Amino acid sequence: MDLFLQLLVNGFINGSNYALLGIGFGLIFSTTGIVHFAYGSVYTFAAYVAWFLATSFGLALLPSMAGAIVAAIVLGVACYTLLYRPLELRRAPPLIPLIASLGLNIVLENLNAIIFGSGVRSANFTSGVYFAGPVFFTSVHIWQVVSCAVVVAALVLFLRKTRYGRAILAMTDDPNMARVVGIDTKKVSYIVFALGSAISAVAATLTLMKDGASTHMGFTAVFMGFVAVIVGGVGSLRGVIAGGLLLGIVESLGLWKISTEWQSSIAFIVLFIMIMLRPQGLFSIARR
Amino acid sequence: MSKPILEVKGLVAGYGKKRAVHGVDLTLNKGETLLVLGHNGAGKTTLMQSVFGLNPPMAGQVFYEGRDVTARNPALNVAGGLAFVPQGHAIFSSLTVRDNLELGAFVETDRPRIQKHLDDVFSMFPILKEREKQIAGTFSGGQKQMLAIGMALMHGPRVLILDEPSIGLAPNLVDRVMKSVEEIKRRFDASIIIVEQNVKYSLPVADRVVVLKTGGVIYEGDPEPLLDHQKLIELF
Amino acid sequence: MEYIYHIAVLFCLYGILTVSFNLLVGFTGMFALSHAALYAIGAYTTAILATDFGAPFPLDMIASVLVAAVISAVIALPALRVTGHYLVIVSLALQIIVLQVILNWKSLTRGSDGISGVPSYNVFGFAITSPDCFLIVALIALAACYWFTHRLVRSPFGRGLRAMRENESAAQAVGLNILYMKLSTFAISAALAAVAGSLFARYFRYVGVDSFTINETIYVLAMVILGGMGNLRGSLVGAAILVALPELLKFVPLPVDIADKIRLILYGLVLMLILLVRPQGLLPEPRGRKAMLVSIEDESGPSDAEKLLDGEGGRKGEVVLQGSNLRKQFSGVTAIKDFSIALKRGQITGLLGPNGAGKTTAFNLLTGFLKPTDGVITLNGRSIADRKPHELVAAGVARSFQDLRLFTNMTVIENVIVALPGQSGRRWPSLFLHPARIRAEERANAARAMEILRFVELENKAHETAADLSYAEEKLLVVARLLATGAEVLLFDEPMSGLDQTTLGDIFPVLRRLAEHGKVVCIIEHNLDVIKELCDEVYFLDEGRTMAVGTPDALMNDPELAERYFK
Asked: Which of A190, A199, A208, A260 lies closest to A228, judged by CA?
């Protein structure tokens, strides 16, 4: 029973990180329709920048995270400006940005590896261990859950209360109608690339704190984000959060019955089953 | 003779290499309701999307208030006082009625003016006020159409283009929607283009009629002669 | 020298991979990015059989091919339910799952250690261990795979694949069996990848999961896209360039791990740049006359419509296709409430009604694209309730689409040939069993297609790409393609909309002649001139019901219907 509780809590904590990734990735996907696969590399880059700031300048967690956010925004917006935007202007068929982003991902992933070296890089942010009854967790865990909550709250406020927040909702719902009411869809695309990348940097810094940064961390991350989006339903914030948490919990509880070497496959199998059975997700938004 | 507010000259439009509109001239005078009739495939929608800037024309020009606005970004057109209500349920179906209306006023930053327009829209379509918090996708067809028109009015347009507002609506609702046109003119001081294949309810509200067929204008003038079905069968 | 041979062997392996991958992504348009996993399955099967069971060539390769083909077909069944982005992501997930299985099934695959000591090929006691000897084997394999794929894509089967890529529902509407084509392509593409895998195991004498990661799939994808999707020679060019390019890095003094990463960066850059600058690739898909499988002489002469349309037996006026009391309900909405129609030989029947009356839904029911909730549809008196669209085309019922759905990236004549009935080359095994027959059929079909184009007066545009036609020409091509199916019942969804008066004048006689020659013609139309000019009988539909049936004049003089139509 204690093990079950512990796994549940672990799953919830990991799930909040997946939810974060899903929110950032899903924001870009649902608004622009671009499957930004290189999101994974932006995330990795952010983790390395945070590591660099923390180890070379001795910055604390929050300032390092702030630096990572700035770096991620610059790289994410550059991805859109240099690759996706030109493809949009050429009216490339919808699959082309995805294929191009696979190429972009390889380029960025290996650039990351050349710049920061391969192998795990970890930063020693201060960390404590806590117990709640039989369940154990660390301050990283608390950070993860809290940041997820903070990001969600901030994003909800932004989407509901600001002009461009509502423009994002509008474009997610129907890009053509967004143009009809006079929304500059190009500007909105830049905004979501910036926001999505910023969110990836939050998740990246926390993963750095927990497991360290490594070259291939981005690939799993973007897949987890995608799975969270698919499970939750494209365009639904609530759905993505539920999807991320569910994924984390399923993965963690899977450990109970399934041997560890299969753990990394669980997400892909979940993805496979979801797309087969319910491609619209569990919480798909109301469409016509 | 009143002044033209929107003029279309020799407009050619289509998609890719395909032309659906072959050189159309249109004039909308200030304060007028112009009815553009035509059956499916006559090129009505392509024409209007082209005028509005959603699909830049291949040739020809569009003048709005005397300025050349050919192929202008729709965002600028909306800011300049044009509004377009596309065919079908042109609303954001995952958002609430209130959010939809607020988005209709996206280009307007002056809060008091938005409030005034909102009040006007609410008094024209009280159902929208009653259902302010409802998700728009759950509306019936008629309610969606009212919302779509309401959205287009939220930034106080001087020219309103309605693309087949009657499509898929029961006759009494069509009547209701068409009657709102008079009120829009009065409250918003807007000039209106209605694109339709529905003749019965749209003719009475029109000041002038243009009939399009296979991408060209085949009739232009008063609505009265068209009240005769025989005349229509000839034209259609 | 040894080094050059080694590079050449690599080129052969990648050549096989690109050619087989191009079949899937280029010709068929299915971006299933799990090619490296199938490559791995081929390599592992050979490695296990040769190492643990001493299986000799060619048993090992045959086993690899079969295992990969079967696994791919099994994978394809669920994967076929999704398209576009979802297919890409699902297949990437599958790629990872397959590698995980290989990694974790230690008893069979030795997990992360990989299988080493795979025996090399042995010909009459002579072991092929050096790259130069192996190169001969690899070249033969590449040539065989290239030849096989070339046969496949330059055939009625391959033309069907491209048609399916352009528009799936239109491909069904010309009688192609989508499921058969997709499954075949998945299996064949995998089988060829397995040939490369089998060679890999015998050449390197070691297999490990690191050689078959997602990066490998993307690497091969970059080669295919660089060379040109839908062009086999391009694939070889793409493979050659991307195999050779990184080798140049060897001349730059760099630490090994950096050089390796720069190699990957190069692939990624090439992939992005080609998509930005030249998305059709270095060697684009053949167009114009080059797209033809046989050359045809342009004998010009008057169209022989009698010859084209003869063979329609039966009595004028007899009912051929009949729908009785049809009802169609979509989740909650009843699109068709009660619709009955009888289409008669030698007649043009019109379907008239305001927007949203259910006309297109009625067409979908009559042609098998939708199944009725209630009601009976009979063809020559026999029920056709459970037939799929492509089966109905073969039985003699074909339709066009309101939004045309031409195969836009194919030439005009290809659009017509692909629709011709009775092509034995649509089944790929016959391409290899009866090549002569297929060739003869192809000649006859090309001539027949030209005849049909002459009938609609498009013969001068035969070798132009359909996307370059004017709107009116597109409409004529729609008629030609429908005619090519050889069906006796032809249903046209708004064949005239958007045409100007003069073009209408061109299409009228075509439709009339079809009816005169005993075809059963039904058109959906809004233009009342067209109805009056063309139709013998008109069904007036509104709110999902047949409101009236009669001659065009009778219907148009009915004030109630006029009221409804002009609402």
From this structure: A199
From C85, which residue of chain A is nearest by alpha-carbon distance?
A: A95
* B18 touching chain C per CB within 8 A: yes
> C547 with C541: CB under 8 angstroms?
yes
Task: Give the separation between CA B7 and CA B65, rounded to whole angstroms.
Answer: 8
Alpha helices in C278-425 (DSSP H): 305-309, 359-366, 389-395, 412-417
Q: What is the dihedral of CA C523, C524, C528, C532, to 10 degrees?
A: 20
Task: Provide the shortest C-alpha distance from residue B206 to chain C (in Å).
Answer: 16
ipTM of model = 0.91
> CB–CB of C527 and B167 under 8 A?
no
Residues A114-154: tens digit of each pLDDT: 999 888 888 877 777 888 878 888 888 888 999 999 999 99
Q: Strand runs (DSSP E) across C460-544, as ranges?
A: 489-493, 520-524, 537-542
Q: Decide if B57 touches A, using CB distance below 8 A.
A: no
Distance from CA of A158 to the nearest CA of B (A): 14
**Touching A: B residues 96-135, CB under 8 Å:** 99, 102-104, 106-107, 109, 135
Helix axes B141-153, B171-188, angle to 10 degrees: 10
C526–B contact, CB cutoff 8 A:
yes
- Confirm or reject contact between B137 and chain C (CB < 8 A): no
Do residues C15 and C236 touch, judged by C-beta distance below 8 A?
Answer: yes
Q: CB–CB of A173/A234 below 8 Å?
A: no
Q: Exposed, middle or buried by CB within 10 Å (0-12, 13-18, 19+), for B198?
A: buried
- Give the A window 265-284 contacts with C, CB below 8 Å: 265, 268-269, 271-272, 275-276, 279
Cα distances (angstroms) measured from residue B107 to each of A60, A182, B75, B101, C260: 42, 6, 8, 12, 52
| Helix A95-116 vs helix C84-104: crossing angle, to nearest 10 | 50
pLDDT, one tens digit per residue, over C465-475 is: 998 888 788 88
Residues of chain C with pLDDT under 50: none
A141–chain B nearest CA distance, Å: 34
Angle at the Cα of C267 from the Cα atoms of C263 and C268, rounded to 5 degrees: 115
Q: pLDDT for B196-207, tens place per residue?
A: 887 878 888 899
Within 8 A by CB and 6+ apart from B109, the residues are A163
Largest CA distance in chain A: 59
Going by pLDDT thresholds of 50, 70 and 90, the confidence category of residue B67 is very high
- For chains A and B, what is the number of CB pairs under 8 angstroms? 71
Q: What 8-state DSSP symbol labels residue B227?
A: G
Residues B77 and B235 sit within 8 Å (Cβ to Cβ): no
The answer to whether B117 and A196 have CB atoms below 8 angstroms apart is no
Q: Per DSSP, what are the bridge partners of residue B63?
A: B7, B68
Closest Cβ–Cβ partner in A167, A170, A286 for B135: A286
Q: Which of A96, A118, A272 sits opposite C90 (nearest CB)?
A: A272
Q: Which of C73, C81, C86, C91 is nearest to C36 (CA)?
A: C91
- Residue of chain A nearest B101, judged by CA positions: A181
Which of B167, B201, B214 lies nearest to residue C498, judging by beta carbons? B214
> Is residue A70 less than 8 Å (CB to CB) from chain B?
no
In B, minimum Cα distance to C358 occurs at: B168
Question: Exposed, middle or buried: residue A126 (CB in 10 Å: 0-12, 13-18, 19+)?
Answer: exposed
> Element (H or E) spanning C545, and its range?
strand C545-550
Buried b / exposed e along C486-506 (16+ C-beta atoms within 10 A): bbbbbbbbbbbbbbeeebbee
**Contact in structure between A47 and A67 (CB atoms under 8 Å):** no
Containing H/E element for B10? strand B4-15
Report the 3 state secondary structure along A206-260.
Answer: HHHHHHCECCCHHHHHHHHHHHHHHHHCCCCHHHHHHHHHHHHHHHHHHHHHCCH
